[in-house]
## 1
Amino acid sequence: MAEYDYDLFVIGAGSGGVRASRLAAMSGAKVAVAEEYRVGGTCVIRGCVPKKFMVYASEFAHHFKTAESYGWSKVESSFDWKTFIEAKDVEIARLSGIYVRNLHNAGVELLHGRATIKGPHTIEITGNDARTVTAKKILIAVGGRPSVPEEIPGIEHVITSDDAFQLDSLPKRIVIIGGGYIAVEFAGIFAGLGSEVTLVYRGANILRGFDDDVREHLAGELEKRGIRVILGCSPDKIEKTPTGLVAHLGNGILCEADQILYATGRKPHVDGLGLETVGVELNENGAVKVDDHSRTTAENIWAVGDVTDRINLTPVAIREGAAFAQTEFYNNPTSFDHDNVASAVFSQPPIGSVGLSEAEGRRKFGKVDIYRTVFRPMKYAFAGAEERCLMKLVVEAESQKVVGVHIVGPDAPEMIQLAAIAVKMGATKAQWDSACAVHPTAAEELVTMREKYVPQELGGA
Ligand code: FAD
């Protein structure tokens, strides 16, 4: 008789957990995964995928307006929130079903319920498939959840990104608190769908961690799209009134709205998981501490994805899960390289970014060459619109390697995927430029920037 019920028990059927459990099971191992909500996790159920559908839905208003300048008659249209939400839910259910089928086909046993670690090899599941099981190895892939500042009076009236996907109606006015990518994405979504949007962020500019030119450029573009951006303050209090909600900002401004969406960060979902009983340590941000092979401080327990707070993106969770399975079930020690992971922000206009920002480049290398262009995308120049596209290359001065690429403008997320290959390969600026332009495109600017950009404060024009 086997020593344990399973070779591997995975907690959480999201991006990381599903990939790890399928790969491990395909090696012949006996694997189970527990899921307390819906299979697919944040990405499929209340993250990347439904968010992108909302972005698509919200972009039509802009397209309709642009169409008129190309000779199309005025589009008289209206948006029906309920129709969209129902269609979105059908598609999400279909995708979640595919995940369930893929688990089944790989031979993974799916247990519906909440898992708690009771001992080094013991897991208790409560819920539909309640039972206690044992496993040789345990993988924690429980992800993160939205966090709101509980100390603010009236905070119980606000919503988070989880709720934004299920609202009964489209808010006429919405205040979004936060300056990260989720906040700016929802600002664009609601503005595109016709809500009056105010974005409030306590920092000096939105999108902390991104290149400063990108941050400034996007803030300007959001305002051109009618989004009110208030920086340098945050709410002291949320008040419920007969006509809606009011955010009382620290600087005395009152922002009235039908909904207030907090997008002020996410926390690893570790509460009540039983980590302390088995010696799984957390870092200062409350994330599970892991080494390069996703091994926690407890022998035979690993963790991947957002719960480890390394780079909180779906493809990263998937790669970490795959690397764990390769190492532990295929005798192929693998660790995921977290350098130069490209990312997109589906703001309107969107952002694509890979590698170092200009500031990071200067800190790391001392001297960097900057190539930068701001121009009107062809499609919108024709329409006489004010929208501008930004492209920027950060080049290490000595080696001439392109170490950062930053794009704000239409199709930036599609472009950055390919740019990431060149950055990952360590291509030099001369090698970028040796690729002939594709014309007429916006992307051709990436291989035709000849003049170094010198900021005004460093003596540039
Ligand atoms: P998750 O996908 O969160 O999965 C964890 C699963 O574990 C969940 O299903 C949860 O229900 C389950 N669980 C938790 N505790 C237990 C328990 N005790 N027992 C049983 N089950 C449990 N990333 C991108 O790459 N691109 C994007 O455009 C993007 N957009 C996003 C938009 C939003 C609004 C949000 C919130 C996130 C977005 N992300 C995006 C991030 C991405 O969703 C996450 O990085 C990714 O889902 C992390 O995967 P994971 O496997 O670590 O966790």
Note: Residues 178 and 201 are 5 Å apart (CA to CA).
## 2
Amino acid sequence: MEKTVICPGSFDPVTYGHIDIITRASKLFDKVIVGVFINVDKNPSFSIEERIGFLKKTVGHLKNVEVVGFDGLLVDCAEQHGATAVVRGLRAVSDFEYEFQMALTNRKLSPTLDTVFLASDAQYTYLSSSIVKNVASLGGDISNFVPEIIHDEIFNRLNKT
Ligand code: ADP
């Protein structure tokens, strides 16, 4: 049976850390749905269209990856796309508590939906969308954080110097 998984996140914006996890998942599973939260708690810096656009430009070459926006419960989005597991990246122990809580909540809501954690690449353990936003807003170099193809669009938007 074909194994479909979902990688959910805000991706505000996508970084090399996200791309690493999505690429790993695409090698492990038959199909990967990248689910972009439409309504992010924290006011997103980029619109849903922009966040999806950045992802398509950076993981679009992976043939078994599809990028979708979603609103509402992750378990519903997973079911809608036939995903049997959620894939999340773990950077450090500090990620663990929140991720474990979410995994167990999702299991309560949908007992058959499991969560798989993939260890981040050591070179990206420090990296997050917030780091990109902070550094770029101060005019710092973000070329080690996001791919060249989306770099200028992100930098020009965030740079406040
Ligand atoms: P959320 O807002 O749900 O935390 P993010 O967009 O920050 O979503 O992250 C989406 C997924 O990518 C999460 O599983 C997160 O752990 C993972 N992730 C983010 N940055 C990295 C990184 N540097 N290395 C590995 N995984 C990462």
Note: Residues 9-11, 15, 17-18, 20-21, 88-89, 91, 95, 120, 124, 127-129 surround adenosine-5'-diphosphate (CB under 6 Å).
